[in-house]
Design a protein that fits this description.
The chain has about 350 residues and is α/β, with parallel strands linked by helices. The protein has a domain of about 220 residues: pyruvate-formate lyase- activating enzyme, CATH 3.80.30.30. The protein is about 35% helix and about 15% strand. It has 13 helices and eleven strands. The structure holds iron/sulfur cluster (SF4). The site of iron/sulfur cluster (SF4) has 13 residues, from loops. Pfam families: Radical_SAM.
């Protein structure tokens, strides 16, 4: 094992790195920090993963069976992120560590190329951005996605990407080339357009306006793009006016579908969100306790109401109903635009 502290200030990465080492079964973990404004305060744990195609557990309700996740942790730092819990498996905390200590699987492209070439691989749909965002800031430096997209394209292997990162536009020509060979599904996550709410609850992400700009650029390049309207945050982004503003903006951006998903709060995200709510909206603490007192999900009647409202608005603005996710588990050439439109699901928030 080698610890390589390039800037001399990442000593505190040692414990977490050992967790990552145990998890990935790697021989080498390199910890780096970069003294540039966009990476200030972020520590990267570079690992060489043993496998990169992950099978989604059989009990999952997700419409895909295989995922690729080149990163763990996400500097987009959404307060509500369901993936926070996964950082605890690395011996890291689900709050600040999740936002600022990012595991990078530096061998992801070469490993994927090898696994796709295996005679055992059936060519099933591969979903990305389903755990953490593959176009988070780290991707600007590590540039893993071009190799990953290239590997999938070489095999004409269908895939989809869900992201909040406008960095996806860097790879537009690659995505367009892949779309000529196989089914490529792209969804951008935009839960609301309220700039004040965005700054506090999704502090590391490109603005909703910038994300909708990415939807427009993708559409203009001939790549159909859906919007996952996630999350709709009770009492903060769910008024009829807010829903209308968001769906109108999504339609104007040229999205082919809009799929609403109400906030859910599982352990890991729940505590972090509760502390944020207490700080920024203390008057809502009691209402949230009632709404999420029974578990991670808002009541079904509330989820149905939001879904109905968004679908009605989508019809009004000419987007049409949310396109159902079409990938069959284990199937070929299927491209889901996002998760199922209704009800509690084992989550994707990208
Ligand atoms: S919700 Fe998506 S973009 Fe936000 S922190 Fe989680 S993985 Fe990153």
């Amino acid at each position: 094992m080698r610890w390589d502290n390039l800037t001399g200030d990442a000593e505190d990465g040692a414990e977490g790195g050992r967790g990552a080492l145990a998890l990935f079964g790697t021989d080498t973990v390199v910890t780096r920090t970069f003294d540039t404004p966009e990476f200030r305060g972020i520590t990267f744990h570079e690992v060489r993963a043993r496998t990169i195609l992950n099978r989604v557990p059989g009990a999952s309700r997700m419409p895909f069976e295989w995922t690729v996740n080149p990163y763990r942790g996400c500097s987009h730092a959404c307060v509500y992120c369901f993936a926070r819990k996964t950082h605890s498996y690395l011996g890291l905390d689900t709050g600040l560590d999740f936002d600022s200590r990012i595991v990078v699987k530096t061998n992801a492209p070469e490993l994927l190329r090898k696994e796709l070439a295996s005679p055992r691989w059936t060519g099933a749909h591969v979903a990305m951005g389903t755990n953490v965002d593959c176009y988070q800031r780290a991707e600007g430096r590590y540039r893993l996605m071009p190799g990953i997209i290239g590997a999938l394209r070489e095999r004409a292997n269908p895939f989809s990407i869900l992201t909040k990162g406008t960095l996806i536009l860097r790879d537009l020509p690659l995505l367009a080339a892949a779309a000529r060979e196989t089914d490529v599904g792209v969804s951008v996550s935009v839960g609301f357009t309220d700039a004040a709410l965005w700054r506090t609850v999704e502090p590391g992400t490109p603005s909703p306006a910038a994300r909708l700009g990415a939807v427009r650029a993708l559409a203009d390049a001939g790549i159909e793009c859906g919007v996952l309207m996630a999350p709709v945050i009770p009492f903060l982004s769910d008024s009829p006016e807010q829903l209308r503003d968001t769906v109108r903006a999504v339609a104007a951006a040229g999205a082919v579908s809009v799929t609403p998903l109400v906030l859910h709060l599982r352990p890991g995200a729940r505590e972090w969100f509760a502390a944020w709510l207490e700080r920024h909206h203390p008057q809502l603490v009691g209402r949230y306790a009632r709404m999420y007192g029974d578990g991670a999900y808002a009541p079904t009647w509330y989820q149905r109401r939001i879904t109905r409202q968004v679908h009605e608005l989508a019809a009004e603005f000419g987007i049409g109903p949310a396109r159902p996710a079409t990938a069959r588990r284990g199937g070929r050439r299927q491209a889901p635009a996002g998760p199922p439109p209704e009800g509690p699901v084992q989550l994707v928030l990208g």
